[in-house]
Design a protein that fits this description.
211 residues, five-stranded parallel beta sheet, binds P1-(5'-adenosyl)P5-(5'-thymidyl)pentaphosphate, alpha/beta, 8 helices
């Protein structure tokens, strides 16, 4: 049986990396074989593209170049990792995927959805995540958490307005498709965030078993 594709999304510093460790433990506890990966990145070539995308630089990166690099890395990632693993029956747990493109390039950079939709169809065909957890925190809190951890990368240097557009885009995608998305209030303590994640995963697994 084909594996399931789970993605974790949210604005900067919402706790994706922290909570992915929890989800991995949950998958182990349920004897589900999986691979854990991320975007941008996930293969050696796509990780090189990630470096290019995140590096702070003098030259302004034009939005279309940024968008195409996101999808170039994604095409490679799907071809080399995501599709082969799903086909083998393994679950794929991915830190960000195309929803991040709708949120960051579509809403944050104000490119709109149409171009992204056509690239999504070209690169993914009909393939979409089976479950997407949107970790949500007020933008200021996320930036504060991310800022405590490391030097800001090229995206983290954006203004609050940019991240507010990103956050609203995530919330609107999630609200419009509650079958696939679960919004997790990630402003709470880690313990409470993980209880919400556990509930979302348990409900997904039950629905999955019931066909
Ligand atoms: N991007 C990506 C696009 O523009 N388009 C795309 O298509 C894609 C795929 C890199 C950038 O690329 C952009 C978006 C990004 O800007 P990334 O590396 O996933 O993507 O980006 P970040 O969001 O920067 O990832 P971070 O690693 O910074 O954030 P996380 O993983 O969400 O946060 P995490 O787990 O490191 O937590 C941050 C801090 O908060 C603490 C943690 O201990 C940590 O110190 N924390 C909490 N503290 C208190 N209470 C809680 N509940 C906490 N949860 C976490």
């Amino acid at each position: 049986m084909r594996g399931r594709f789970i993605t974790i999304e949210g604005t900067e510093g919402v706790g994706k990396t922290t909570n992915i460790e929890y989800i991995k433990q949950w998958l182990d506890d349920h004897a589900i074989s999986y691979v854990s990966t991320r975007e941008p990145g996930g293969t050696p070539l796509a990780e090189e593209i990630r470096q290019v995308l995140l590096a702070n630089r003098e030259e302004k990166v034009c939005s279309k170049a940024e968008l195409l690099m996101m999808f170039a890395g994604r095409a490679q990632h799907i071809d080399q990792v995501i599709e082969p693993q799903l086909a083998k029956g393994n679950w794929v747990l991915c830190d960000r995927f195309t929803d991040a493109t709708y949120a960051y390039q579509g809403a944050g950079r104000e490119m709109g959805d149409e171009l992204i939709k056509s690239l999504e169809t070209m690169v993914q065909g009909a393939m979409r995540p089976d479950l997407t957890l949107v970790l949500d925190v007020p933008v200021e809190l996320g930036l504060e958490r991310a800022g405590n951890r490391s030097e800001p990368d090229r995206f983290e240097r954006e203004k609050t307005d940019f991240f507010n557009r990103v956050r609203q885009a995530y919330l609107s995608m999630a609200t419009n498709n509650p079958q696939r998305y679960k919004i997790i209030d990630a402003s709470q303590s880690l313990e409470h965030v993980q209880l919400q994640i556990e509930a979302a995963l348990t409900s997904f697994l039950q629905k999955d078993h019931n066909g």
